[in-house]
Amino acid sequence: MKSVVCDTPGTLRMEQRPIPVPEAGEVLVRIRRIGICGTDMHIFRGTQPFLSYPRVMGHELSGQVVSAPDGSALAAGDQVYVMPYLSCGTCIACRKGKTNCCTRIEVLGVHRDGGMCEYLALPERFVFKTEGISLDDAAMIEFLAIGAHAVTRGSVQAGDNVLVVGAGPIGMAVMLFAKLKGARVTVLDARQDRLQFCRDAFGIERTVQTGPQDKDQLAAYSDDEFFDIVFDATGNIKAMERGLEFVAHGGTYVLVSIVRDTLSFSDPEFHKRETSLLGSRNATAADFEEVVAAMKAGLVPTALLNTHRTTLDEFTTVLPLWMEPSAGVIKAIVEL
Predict the structure, then answer these.
(1) pLDDT in tens, 234-272
(2) Stretch (H or E) spanning 195
């Protein structure tokens, strides 16, 4: 089968590998769609902190079942999506239901080879029927689930004044699910085209472009009190450190993005707010289900989000082009 391998940062190649033979309890999935996200671009750049090379990328996956174990709820031909966080089920985090931060987690396309290939064998508990949503939409569940999980972590309630810093796909997922909770959402980003997309696709009325006057604008949008909950989805160390400035007294700061670095901020600023500082990692099965329900209800503008697509054969050529801001990529999908 065809597999795309990232040998080293900046190097992609097509490789022929054997079709995997499922072990006991595993489902063989024919991959049909692969969503491309910031993690894949970080891998290509060499800035993903949990990865070693070479690696087959790809963790936003949908496809069709080729074979399933005896007695399985899945059958050949079923359309499915994949939950790419392979958790152990027994560690301290898993026992608490926090499978997203399992101590032995293996994320497809990061800790182990992922789905940038034609076939993948996976334990059955990480493969779910699409339940009537399209293969394209199913390949977008994962990044949206990260946003849904972050909103749950932040305990967003109706009427909360929320700031999302970073208007990439993960930030967009956060703002979507914060709005669905009834929050008032403001977005801060350096790129005007991304802010315009947020206005058009999600109806975000309050957008601020990063610059000398951005804090004054944010103060004006919050009656000089700033924000009950601030989400960082930038992947930028300076932005992550600065975001504390925008948290209201008694507020919460949720770090959704991750960097290969050490964060620091003013302890007096942190303490005087009695800030709740939270990390938000990956998502759980419940978050995936929340996204599927929102898709079925027509609450996710998937047609607008899917701005680019290609084939597996063309992927090695187009990925470097898609990483340029001028390409205008929101969510790209590889179709097999």
Answers:
(1) 989 999 999 999 999 999 999 999 888 899 999 999 999
(2) helix 192-202
Q: In Å, how far are 68, 107, 120, 227 from 65, measured between CA atoms?
A: 7, 20, 10, 45
Upper half-sphere CA count for residue 264 (Cβ side, 13 Å): 2
What pTM does this model have?
A: 0.95
Asked if 180 and 157 touch (Cβ cutoff 8 Å), the reply is: no
CB 239 within 8 A of CB 214: no
Q: Which domains does the chain have, with CATH numbers?
A: 2-140+300-335 (3.90.180.10), 147-279 (3.40.50.720)
Task: Respond yes or no on whether the N-terminal peptide bond of residue 54 is cis (omega within 30° of 0).
Answer: yes
- Given a contact cutoff of 8 angstroms between Cβ atoms, the answer to whether 6 and 58 are in contact is no
List, as own/partner pairs, every contact residues 323-330 make where C-beta atoms lie below 8 angstroms and the sequence separation is at least 24, other chains included: 323/41, 323/44, 323/45, 325/191, 325/193, 328/193, 329/36, 330/169, 330/172, 330/197, 330/304, 330/305, 330/306
Task: For residue 62, give the H/E element and its range.
Answer: strand 60-67
Nearest to 116 by CA among 35, 9, 3, 28: 3
For β-strands 331-335 and 26-36, DSSP reports them as antiparallel
Q: Provide DSSP, 248-286.
A: EEEEEEEE----SS-----HHHHHHTT-EEEE--S--HH
Report the residue count for the chain. Answer: 336
Helix residue ranges per DSSP H, 67-158? 92-95, 135-138, 141-153
CB 247 within 8 A of CB 164: no
pLDDT digits over 196-218, tens only?
999 999 999 999 999 999 999 99
